[in-house]
Amino acid sequence: MSERIPKGALVLAAALLLCALPFYLDAFWLRIGLFSMAAAIGAVGLGLLTGTAGQLSLGHAFFLAVGAYGYTWLAGEPGPGLPTPLAALLAVLLAGAAGGLFSPVAGRVRGIYLGVATLALVFLGHHVLLTADSVTGGFNGRSVPPLHLGGFSFGDDGPQLVVLGVPFGAEERLWYLGLVLLAGTWWTARGLLRGRPGRALAALRDSETAAAVMGVDVARHRSAAFVVSSMYAGLAGVLLALAFRRVVPDYFGLALSVDYLAMIVIGGLGSVAGAAAGAVFVTALPLLMTRYADQLPLVTAPGTTEGGVGPTEAARYLYGAAIVLVLLYAPDGLRGLVRRVRARPGPASPAPPPTARPTASAVRTKEPTP
């Protein structure tokens, strides 16, 4: 049987591949990667809340909006005009504070009741984004100030940068920022799941009564899970704002919250890698279908209403069907499917030929002669 490749070697090869992609991909593919990385960060946070802690949330889009608009207002004009790294950090903390304000509700209700309560956040937040013109810009939104770190700009406003003959614009620069943020999210989330907090949240998901008997503070851990999930969503909102370069209220609606639920269900509840894989699938599919709409059957180009459905609607049909298939045939999602494939034993090596047993005539000794 062939030996498996060490996990560390696979991680190193994947990291080198991701770091090399900006030298070979155009802006379209880099934007898909940026949106996927931002979605993966937010999906990891929702996975901790819903997949690990067992708390249904339909308000994830609200906390993404807090992060995106918080950074835009704190770093921009009108606004305090803070240094952009400080504005990004405060936007993440602001999203966590919003989750903390809602955490008493999360600590007392559960199931569908918590889902309805978080759904109210989406409608309330959308109304505020449309009416608070001085902060959000109203219906037309606001332009996002580029991030500057130590004199280095992650936008197109800085000096032109050329690396190994390849011009590095905003997409290329933000690509490496997204990789760093995603790696930090991956590392912290896996550490949380493998530590005592993760075991306590898993116990809450299985049985709150049994968790309380074992000494787990139920209300405290449920509230903490909501705060941590909100901070991950705020970080995802900051990266999304930098990638979009303009934030508008209509993007942060109910459809976005449903998309995030689809990500963690398709990827696998309670899995960091599964949440990231589901985020890439749900985020990249409509963008790819929009680009190749003229080559796909029953799909029309954006703005055309005859002869089929739009690429966004077609993408929703496809990953809606993917959710049904996952629930029926792979309840643990893509991550569980990959785990089962890797655990499947390889082809058995051929058995050695049986050794011939000696016959009775071969072992019969010759009788001594008189």
UniProtKB/TrEMBL annotation:
InterPro entries linked to this entry: ABC_transp_permease, LivM-like
Compartments it resides in: Cell membrane
Membrane topology note: Multi-pass membrane protein
Pfam families associated with the record: BPD_transp_2
Keywords on record: Cell membrane, Membrane, Transmembrane, Transmembrane helix
Transmembrane segments: 32-49, 56-74, 86-105, 112-130, 174-193, 224-248, 260-288
Main location class: membrane
Pro residues compositional bias, start-end: 347-356
Region (Disordered): 343-370
PANTHER family: ABC TRANSPORTER PERMEASE PROTEIN (PTHR30482:SF5), HIGH-AFFINITY BRANCHED-CHAIN AMINO ACID TRANSPORT SYSTEM PERMEASE (PTHR30482)
Protein name, as recorded: Branched-chain amino acid ABC transporter permease
Native source species: Streptomyces asoensis
